[in-house]
UniProtKB/TrEMBL annotation:
Gene3D superfamilies per UniProt: P-loop containing nucleotide triphosphate hydrolases
Organism: Streptomyces avermitilis
Record key words, sorted: ATP-binding, Helicase, Hydrolase, Nucleotide-binding
The keyword ATP-binding is assigned to this record: yes
Top-level taxon in the UniProt lineage: Bacteria
Molecular function, one GO term: DNA binding
Region: Disordered, residue numbers: 733-754
GO cellular component: cytosol
UniProt xrefs under PANTHER family: DNA 3'-5' HELICASE (PTHR11070:SF45), UVRD / RECB / PCRA DNA HELICASE FAMILY MEMBER (PTHR11070)
Family matches, as InterPro entries: DNA_helicase_UvrD/REP, P-loop_NTPase, UvrD-like_ATP-bd
Domain UvrD-like helicase ATP-binding residue range list: 175-595
Name of the protein described by the UniProt record: DNA helicase
Binding site for ATP: G196, G197, P198, G199, T200, G201, K202, T203
Amino acid sequence: MRLEQEFIDGLYARVDALRGVTEVSVTDALAQGNTPMQARLERDVLVAERSGLLAALNAVDESLCFGRIDLTSGVSHHIGRIGIRADDTEHTPILIDWRAQVARPFYLATGHTPMGLRRRRHLTTDGRRVTDLHDELLDLGDATRTGHEDPTGDAVLLAALNSARTGRMSDIVQTIQAEQDRIIRAPHRGVLVVEGGPGTGKTAVALHRAAFLLYEYRELLAKRAVLIVGPNPAFLGYIGEVLPSLGETGVLLATVGELFPGVKATAADNPRASAVKGRAEMAEVLAEVVRDRQALPDPVITIEHDRDVLMLDDGLVRVARDRTREAKLPHNVAREYFEGHILNTLTDMVAERIGTDPFDGSNLLDAADITQIRDELAENREVWSAIDRLWPRLTPQRLVADFLAEPEGYVSAEDAAAIRRPVTRAWTTADVPLLDEAAELLGEDDRLARALADRERNTQVAYAQGVLDVSYASRTYEFEDKDEEDSEVLSAHHIIDAERFAERHEEEDHRSAAERAAADRTWAFGHIIVDEAQELSPMAWRLLMRRSPTRSMTLVGDPAQTAEAAGVGSWEEILAPYVQDRFDHTRLAVNYRTPSEIMDMAAAVVRAERPGFEPPSSVRSTGVRPWVRATDDLPSAVAEAVAELTPAEGRLAVIAPRELHRKLAARLDGVTAGAEPDLTHTVVLLDPRQSKGLEFDSVLVVEPARYGTSDLYVALTRATQRLGVLHTGELPKALADGEPHPADGTPAPGITKR
């Protein structure tokens, strides 16, 4: 213990020194004040890089080092959250990053396959103080003993599983299991599906996989960023500290409802509306909506021009529309072509009227005359008014809002009734994929933006030319020989022109890749991780696949927990349109979170609907059976149960239907609830969908008969220690029977009923 404490002391001394040097460099850079443009750019880059390093050093300060491996060769390596090198000429590694290949035996070595290890040591620390050691001997012929031997090798894992929850997910870097490590370190190319039931650690594995990929493919992913998609804001808040604790901050965490820049989904759909909006057919529906905005005159559009009246009828406009559609361009991009066709049609009309020779019918106008007519038409407001009516510029928000306000004619009457909504209503999560689809169909007419950019660019070049001219005029040379001057002196004009000078002084974008990706709908991510992937609709998958043209993705989920009506039933159904059957599929089969007593109860709920259901196997039993109670005074019973179940340390979740939240919250002091509840509170009130991916020491499930099977399965499996169920009416059959049975048919401990 003393030697390990000395090592930890030296390690933190090195970290403190690195932190101090980094802080000084950032402070000095920021204190530079007014400097030339190039120097400011270099300063900003330095500040961004050093600030990222400083954030990583601060984030990993807790439990920086957690292990050591002793090789049979006599070499030892300490393993930690990030790599640290000594301040010597060789930059000797003193702490090995857990993601490095040399650290892998720490997670995979066994007595049967020791991978060259003699001993594996787990260090437990409190701040900077070593509090415990656990040694696993892997070389059984080694008689050396330290007094810290762990015969089973499970002490650290069980301590982590039984520890009190904090309302924030902790990393599992100290206790990664072999099956999890293989998934974490899988190659980044292609689609990897990780299927696992409650408590199998699939979310933690996905997050550690993100950290590993950022380490292993740093150059690639630093440019393109990693996107992690979660089911709801509460979940993202819950997992938000994991990657920083592993030294990684360049990741974008978002829900599907946050993946359209400028829009955040704040409203909720009913299940029917969500299912309709999520169907794959909605892509063609929106395409039809766009086509209908490319109108024909009814019956004609008249335009006054130069004391004459021009008429655009159905036939003329139809020809222009059909020719424009042949280009197969997005609506707003194609408008430029439609404008050209209409202007040409009107130009021909005017030219024929004023230029036809009355004797032989030939046209007397030359090319310059035709150009003048076209230019005059292009300045006629009535022409542009007609074009706007026939081929309007559209935004995704306007198109989708108008469609949802009047969906009749595009979907069935039943579906129209389900999705109809006022134009001014807030967006829902199911609306965001529709907005993204609309953006693809519409494109962006960027002619004005390009014109403004060109004008700004020309201004910058003109300014740069002026700077160079002043520089050239103010030259002073000591040469007397003119030829020698011309042959040996290089002025600014010789090595740089105004264009390049302007480029060097353009303001650069120093936002991180994740920050830039969040603001860019068309961003292509280096890798995408989707948690609760089974819940996403076909339309949501279209959105995500656009952001992953290389199909480098990790999908995490459990079909048994599918609750969304728009969710897809199988991985093949999800992926076939994009990668056919070319994806890897792996399963996590061990439940580390849920005690067997609770898991048996939850599995019985699913087996009542699916008799062949096989849940993950729980690794532990607490000896505490879940209980079920009936009541005729629900608020009072909930208050009493909360007092009973609230742990001395840790967190309690009350999971209840959303419509009961206000009534229950009124009886619970200090409870947090709402769309984004604070999960660090001792007691939190959630609905079943909000509880997805979360875990608590104790859970109280209220009115289980109001849940669907998947929602109830999720709610029952959130607890790590104790579970209670309260109801006022009938119970689901599996809970009413009180005799859950595990998959092997042996009787399980019964449910305690009161």
